[in-house]
Amino acid sequence: MKISGVDIRPGNIIEYEGGIWKAVKIQHTQPGKGGAYMQVEMKNLIDGRKNNVRFRSAETVERVRLDTKDFQFLFADGEALTFMDKENYEQITLDKGVIGEAAEFLQDGMDVVMELYDERPISVDLPSQIEATIVEADAVVKGQTASSSYKPAVLDNGVRVMVPPHIGAGTRIVVDVYERTYVKRAD
């Protein structure tokens, strides 16, 4: 499906110069002289390269539709992650680089959605929020107000996040996986 260069949105998968790219960030710019354009930061889903490209409104790109399949995360072995197809129970092993930094949030038995291009897995989407336990939290500095200051904390998976001052070690919280931010206290 062809779309105009200025209609690209973050998360869109497009075909560009013979590769499959995912739009990561976009910035629409209207200079004083000349036509408007869309500055798109893209990541190649096959080899991981990044690229910044300007698309004018007259340019069109091919938007790619990916097949999606439900998988379950089984275990990690070094840099290799093993998933199981929930339909036929086949196992597939991927490199951590396919998922990126979000791989730190994988939990045994977690349901994920794998995106496939020509039957080849090219990306894995985790749930946007997960629950985690704080194992270490800095002490509150006297005089800080609750509304303006957050303190660093370490989760049970080793990830550092900023949390409100009233949250201490041993507390279960909800964390946004892709923004790496505190959302709320877990119920």
From TrEMBL:
SMART domains: EFP, Elong-fact-P_C. This is Elongation factor P. Keywords: Cytoplasm, Elongation factor, Protein biosynthesis. Pathway: Protein biosynthesis; polypeptide chain elongation. Residues 68-122 form the Translation elongation factor P/YeiP central domain. Residues 130-185 form the Elongation factor P C-terminal domain. Transmembrane segments: none annotated. Belongs to the elongation factor P family. Its main location: cytoplasm. It is found in: Cytoplasm. Gene3D superfamilies: 2.30.30.30, Nucleic acid-binding proteins (2.40.50.140). Involved in peptide bond synthesis. Stimulates efficient translation and peptide-bond synthesis on native or reconstituted 70S ribosomes in vitro. Probably functions indirectly by altering the affinity of the ribosome for aminoacyl-tRNA, thus increasing their reactivity as acceptors for peptidyl transferase. CDD domains: S1_EF-P_repeat_1, S1_EF-P_repeat_2. GO terms for molecular function: translation elongation factor activity. It comes from Sphingomonas immobilis.
